[in-house]
Structure formats: C-alpha cells, structure tokens
Design a protein that fits this description.
Main location: membrane
Strand content: over 45%
Keywords: Cell outer membrane, Membrane, Signal, Transmembrane, Transmembrane beta strand, Transport
Number of strands: 55
Membrane topology: Multi-pass membrane protein
Protein name: Fimbria/pilus outer membrane usher protein
Oligomer: single chain
Radius of gyration: 33 Å
Subcellular location: Cell outer membrane
Structural class: mainly beta
Helix content: under 10%
C-alpha cells in the first residue's frame, strides 16, 4: 500500500504551533474548510480549541517557576466548577510554598476543590500552563511577587530536600611493593561515608580502615573504625546547619577539637554565590606516584593518589576550617608530613549580617569515649557598617575558659585587615593556674591593576601561659602537651604576568614553639606558556618546596617542560630532593573522555646510592560504576611497585538504585531517571544510566542552582529526548531526583481503523500507557508512530476520552507499513 502525505499536514503543524504554546486558556474555533481532508466531518480539534488543554487525571510533571525547575510532583488536573472545557492543574499548599512568593503575595491566594488547589488568578500577571510534551507544569510569576533570586541561586523556599534513600561512598587504595632482596610489603586503606536520608535529616557514619603486612615474618596489622557518627539538617530560615552527635569545633577564632553534642553554625553556601567564601588549598610535590591523605585530628577528610610531580588539591569543602595534617606516602616507603593552616579572615561579613557558630557538649575521643567537662562554645561576626565588622566569641568549660574580641576593617584599595586578641584561663589539678593572651593580625588584598592577589596573610603571637582548649585537654588528660605555639607567620599569594604569559604562586608558613624546634614550610611555583618556532603552546614550570619539621629539613626542586603532541603531551621533568637527583621523560595521553594514561622513564642518582634507571606508568579510568586508577613503578636496584585505587559509591532509593563513580563522602547527589532507557549519556557522558535507566550525578553543589543535561548527540538511534535538561537546587547531603522524558523504540507508519472500517478522527491523539503522546492522527487514520515497543498497547484519544486502543505486533518485517485495528475500550 502506498501512502500519500497531503498539504494539510503542514497546516495542522502550524495550528499546533500557534495554539499549543499559549500561556492563557482561551477558546478558538477552527475553519476546517481549509484542510484537504476526504472526510471533513470526521475531525476532532476539540483539545486544540483551548490552549494547553489536558485531560483530567494525575500526571508526573516538573514544577517550573519562570523557567527554573523546582522538583517533580504528581499533579492532578480537575475540571473547574464541573466544566469539561475548563481543566486546571491542582497546586497543593506544599507546591505553593516552593514557589518563593513574598508574604503579601501568599496572602492573596485562594483555594478551590475543597481547599486543596491554589487559585493564582489574584496574582496579577501570574499564569499556569501544562506542557505534557516536556512533562512540565510552567508557572510564570512577576519578579516583584517573588523573594530575592540570583541567576545561579534560588531562595530557601525553592530548595529541594530530595528523596529518602541509602548511600555508601568509598575510597580504596592498595599497593604491593617488592623490595630488593625479595622482601615484600602490602598495604591497603579504605575510607568513606555511609548513611541514610529521611526528609530533611541526614544520618551519616564516616569510616576508615587500613591493612599492612611485610614478608619478614612480621605480623600483619589491620584496623577499622567508625571515625564519626552524626546527623545534620539545614535550617533554611536561620541560614544555618544543625548537627547532632560527634563533630569538630568549626571556628574562625578558636582551635578545633572533637566533641559529642549539638552544634548550630551559619553556612555561607546558603547565600548567593557572589556572597560565599573560599575553600582551602593544599599543594606540594610528590617524588613518586604517591598517596595524599588530608586529615584533621585523626579523621580523614580527603584521600587520593597522585602522579609524581607537583600537585594542588582544591576540592576540599569550603566548610573546612582550622589546621590540616597532610601526609604524602611515596611508593618507595618514604613519607612527607606537613600542616596547612586554613584559617579564613573573620571580618568578611556584609553590613547588617551576622555569621555565627555555637556548640554545646563534652569533648570526646577518637574511640567515641567522653573525655572532658561540659562546655559551651560560640563565636560571631557582625557587619557593623559598610567598612567595619565586629567579631568575637568564647569557650566556657569550668576549669577552662577563653574569650576573644576583634575588629575588621575594609581598607578598600588597600585590601582588608582584621586584628583580634584571645584571653584564656586554665586550671589543671596539681598545677598552677595558667593565664595568657594570643594576638592575631590578618590581611587580604586583590591587586586588580597588576593581576595579583594576597589570598591570606597572617601573624599570630601567643604568650607562654596561653592555652587553647585542645592544649588544655591534652595537658589534663594525657600528662602534658607538646608543640605549644609561640609565633605563626602565614601567607598565600599568586600573580599573573599576562604580557609574559607567566603565573607565580607562593605559600609560606613559619611556626615557632615555646617547647620545641620551629617548623618552616614554603611552596613556590612559576609557570610560563609560549611558542617557539613551529612549536606551539610550550610550557615550562619550576616548583620548589622547603619544610623543616621537628628539626628535620626536606628540600625539593621540580622542573618540568611540556609540548602538546598528537592527542597527548610530551614532557620532561627534573627533580632534586636533598642530595638525590632524578630526570625523566614522559608522555601523557587521553584515549577518550573517560580514559587517560601517563608513561615515564628516566634515571636517579646521588645520595650515595649510585645511578639507577626507573620507569613508571599511571592509568586512569572513569567507569560506569567506579573511578579507577592503576599505577606501576620500577626503580633499578631498589623496588617494584603496583597500586590500584577505586573511588565510587552506591545510592539506593524507592525511585531506583545505581552504583556510580565519585561520591564525595556522603555529599549531595542527583538521581536521574530516564524512564527505563539504559546507556543514556548524562553530563557529556561522564555518567551513563544503568540497564534500569537510573544514573547518579555526584558532583552536585549544595544550595546552588545546577543544570544537568543529556548529551543528545550520543543517544542511540532509536532514542529521542523531548526533555533533555533538568535543574535542581539541593540542600546539603540531599539525594535529588529528576526525570528526563525519553522515547525508546521503533518508528513506523501506520493506518488506524475502527471495527466498521472507518478511521478515528483527524486530530486524535495516540498515547502510550505512560501518558506520552506518540502521534497525532492525520486524514484517513494515518499516523507516524515513534518510540513504540513491539507487543505494547496504545490508547487513541478524542473528544476528551480514551475511545479505543491498538496493539503493536510483536515483530515486523523491514520497512513495514501497519494497518492497526482500533479496539473499543468497552
């Protein structure tokens, strides 16, 4: 049978475009005489006579406010006042709360359908429009009726707490090293977070464990511990986070210690992006493929494997404060340790705003015991005026008390400066009372005219008798403390020389003590990019670190040069560490967006160990279920090492479950649902849905408006996406849920016929059992069906009701044209 497409197909397409995109529900009449249809009496345009007409029923739709997506809801559509041609969406009071309306606008809203559905008609300029083709309910409201918004931020009323679920995130690192003389060492470590989400509450447990063994008859050592058990939730109206259980003092004024109790702290992430602070950064140089562990008071905050050479870790949470312990474990068994002070400048408070932290409880130990008196701790920072901030706080714990007061000043073109003093009183049984002060000066400045920045510079001096809470607990319960601070100098700065294509970075800290040798650490790097003859985008970088810890000195100098070549980069590096030197030639290549590798070979000499050859390799793969890296090294006359790292997680909810790469130790994530369609690329293919159509995007920002999209260019040929972008603004630790609208299946031409040989009317709709429209009938029952599954049943709708259904055959010959009987619904 040969099918003929007539000009009326273009006419109906134009009509749909004109009347299907309207925002206001108004009725129109169609002049069917313009259509080239054989049976002009068998036409049903009733659902197009009213803009955005939707049949009564329940629909899973994305609630959208001014084109921003809020969340997915099951939204009922009812006939208003019993009129069949007046079908309206029922907005529940819960949905209205999520719109972010001002209080005065909320007071104008009335309700219908037994006070279950909101009527927004009293809000001048507000419109509500259903969009089934994109599975959305679009609400347009004038900006004057809404709370403050930002292009990348929405008010607290529109934040999404996500759905209930379970999660398990892990980070596994393992290595086997064969030393000269047939000695063998094995080590493995695991860290991560597990927990559950219930409403706005997040219950979490942080864990860490390790295993080591050697071949010299030594017993293997293994341990596993729950390092922290806690629960937290956002308090949006206070702009703060409530935490219960085991926690660490997070203060700009006082040092950090572990406690069990309750804490409330304002969270800058709840502010618009332009008003938020910054996260700390850790930098250094790895002499071999190495494991970097960042911890605070024994709790692992971040762990990763890095290739040999300079590294900069910038992915720590902005909520991290205080002094961090950094441990770099090299493959040859050597270890670097140093500390990084992440203190921020406490005067950064906008006029009229108050930032604060409070905590109540008792100090606790790593093994969950209680050790110390009841205490109350708190600090605040108040923006007094445009250029002044007042801050202070106190710790009160019976035999230990401390108060602090400070003042911050915006110097405008000269940067910003703050100064504060802390007074402590401590009584330890059997010892004299200790009373002392600690002074601090902090400075920050961005030099736009020279494209440079002093990120943080500070000086602190503590008297001999001054004690922090941590020192007091150590002295009272562990027979004395060591490392009593005296002076601390800290600076972090960077500068770009655009004309010379040079970038410089510097970090420096100098810590002196009353009772032990001083510690020094600096890291400086200079990079330049340039062209030479026919060679383009060459790069040269020089990095140097010096550290002196407990009287032991460690110097490292690293020189690297790189040249883009093909799909990768050819590089040279030279390194000196104390009296030993090494040179290597390497190649870094990207196989695709998920796979990369690095190969190096060279020599090392000096230090009384002669000259040895060395080779190493590093391979990284982002899989569907886990991030993986494999590294291997061989050093002549020294060792051979093989390592493996895995990072990923599992997220389980009532909407679906998936294994996934990343995880971020229990942090915010988004569960995406593609309606049972598997292998769908999300976020440029970094995430792919599993066989059940579920995927998890783990690198989601908290309280930040984020778009997540399907890469339509990588979709299979039999898959179409009518809704390929979703938006979300999730609270901290939430498991968000969003659905994409996809059709997967065959595409065929068909003629639908009723039992008496006639056809369903021109304009009738063909829908699958998920409520998705697959086609609109043309003259003579002609339909182009897309996204069909063989053997499924499809409903045909006209006059506002499901009138009949068709059954798709279980198999089809190639290029078949179907004649489908339409069976009565009775």
């Amino acid at each position: 049978m040969k099918l003929k497409l007539k000009p009326h197909s273009l006419c109906i397409a134009i009509l749909f475009a004109l009347f299907g995109a309207g925002k206001i529900a108004y009725s129109v009449e169609f002049n069917t005489d313009i259509l080239d249809a054989e049976d002009k009496k068998n036409i049903d345009f009733s659902r197009f006579a009213t803009a955005n007409y939707i049949l009564p029923g329940d629909y899973l739709l994305t609630l959208m406010i001014n084109n921003h997506q809020l969340a997915d809801f099951t939204i009922p559509f009812y006939a208003r006042d019993g009129k069949k041609d007046s079908i309206e969406a029922c907005l529940s009071p819960e949905m209205v709360e999520r719109l972010g309306l001002t209080i005065s606008a909320q007071d104008k809203i009335t309700y219908w359908h037994d006070n279950a559905c909101a009527d927004l008609s009293a809000l001048s300029g507000a419109t509500v429009s259903g969009d089934l083709s994109n599975a959305a309910l679009r609400i347009s409201i004038p900006q004057a009726l809404l709370e403050y918004t930002d292009p990348n931020w929405v008010p607290a009323s529109q934040w999404d707490n996500g759905i209930p679920g379970l999660l398990l995130d892990y980070n596994v690192n393992s290595a086997v090293t064969w030393l000269q003389g047939d000695d063998q060492m094995k080590n493995a470590s695991v860290s991560g977070t597990t927990g559950t989400n219930i409403g706005s509450w997040r219950l979490r447990g942080d864990y860490q464990g390790s295993y080591t063994s050697a071949s010299r008859g030594q017993d293997s050592q293994r341990n596993f511990a729950w390092s922290r058990m806690y629960a937290f939730r956002a308090l949006p109206q206070m702009g703060a986070t409530l935490t219960l259980g085991e926690n660490f003092i997070n203060s700009n004024l006082f040092d950090s210690w572990r406690y069990t109790g309750v804490g409330i702290a304002s969270d800058e992430r709840m502010l618009p992006p332009s008003l938020r602070g910054y996260a700390p950064e850790v930098s250094g140089i790895a002499r071999t493929n190495a494991r970097v562990i960042i911890s605070q008071q024994g709790r692992v905050l971040y762990e990763t494997t890095v290739a040999s050479g300079p590294f900069r870790i910038q992915s720590l949470s902005s909520a991290v404060n205080g002094r961090l312990d950094v441990r770099v474990e090299e493959q040859d068994g050597n270890t670097q340790t140093f500390q990084v002070d992440t203190a921020t400048i406490p005067y950064l408070t906008r006029p009229g705003q108050v930032r604060y932290t409070t905590a109540f409880g008792r100090p606790s130990t790593y093994d969950h015991g209680i050790e110390g008196p009841m205490f109350a701790n708190g600090d605040f920072s108040w923006g007094v005026a445009n250029s002044w901030s007042l801050y202070g706080g106190g710790t009160f714990a019976g035999d230990y008390n401390a108060v602090a007061i400070g003042l911050g000043r915006d110097l405008y073109n000269f940067g910003a400066l703050s100064a504060d003093v802390t007074q402590s009183w401590a009584r330890i049984p059997g010892q004299d009372s200790r009373v002392g002060k600690s002074w601090r000066l902090s400075y920050s400045k961005r030099f736009d005219e020279i494209n440079g920045e002093v990120t943080f510079a500070g000086y602190r001096f503590s008297e001999r008798e001054f004690m922090s809470m941590g020192q007091y607990l150590e002295s009272r319960y562990h027979d004395g403390s060591v490392g009593q601070d005296k002076e601390l100098y800290t600076i972090t700065a960077n500068k770009s020389f655009e004309d010379a294509s040079v970038t410089a970075y510097l970090s420096y800290s100098h810590q002196t003590y009353w009772d032990q040798p001083y510690n020094d650490r600096y890291n400086i790097s200079i990079s330049r990019y340039f062209d030479f003859a026919s060679l383009k985008n060459l790069a040269v970088s020089l990095s140097a670190t010096r550290s002196k810890f407990n009287g032991q000195k460690n110097d490292t100098l690293f020189l690297s040069m790189s040249l883009p070549m093909g799909n990768g980069t050819l590089s040279y590096s030279g390194q000196t560490n104390n009296s030993r030197y090494s040179h290597s030639l390497g190649y870094y290549g990207r196989i695709d967006n998920r796979n990369s590798y690095r190969l190096t070979g060279g020599t090392s000499s000096g230090g009384g160990n002669g000259t040895n050859g060395q080779v190493s390799g590093y391979f990284s793969h982002r899989g569907d279920f886990s991030d993986m890296s494999v590294n291997a090294s061989y050093v002549q006359n020294s060792f051979t090492s093989l390592g493996l790292s895995l990072q990923g997680g599992a997220t389980v909810t009532g909407k679906g479950a998936a294994l996934h790469p990343g995880g971020g130790n229990g942090n915010t994530r988004l569960l995406v649902d593609t309606g049972g369609v598997g292998n769908v690329p999300v976020e440029g293919g970094r995430v792919r849905t599993n066989r059940w159509g579920i995927g998890v995007v783990t690198d989601m920002s908290s309280y930040y408006l984020t778009s997540t999209s399907i890469d339509v260019n990588q979709l299979d040929d039999d898959v179409e996406a009518s809704k390929s972008v979703v938006e979300s603004s999730l609270t901290e630790g939430a498991i968000g849920y969003r659905q994409f609208s996809l059709l997967k299946g065959a595409k065929v031409l068909a003629i639908l016929a009723l039992s008496d040989g006639s056809h369903p009317p021109f304009g009738a709709s063909v829908m699958n059992r998920k409520g998705q429209e697959l086609a609109v009938l043309s003259d003579g029952g002609l339909a182009y069906l897309s996204g069909i599954s063989f053997g499924e049943q499809l409903d045909v709708v006209w006059n506002g009701q499901k009138q009949c259904y068709v059954e798709i055959p279980k198999s089809l010959p190639p290029l078949a044209q179907l004649l489908l009987p339409c069976h009565s619904m009775n």
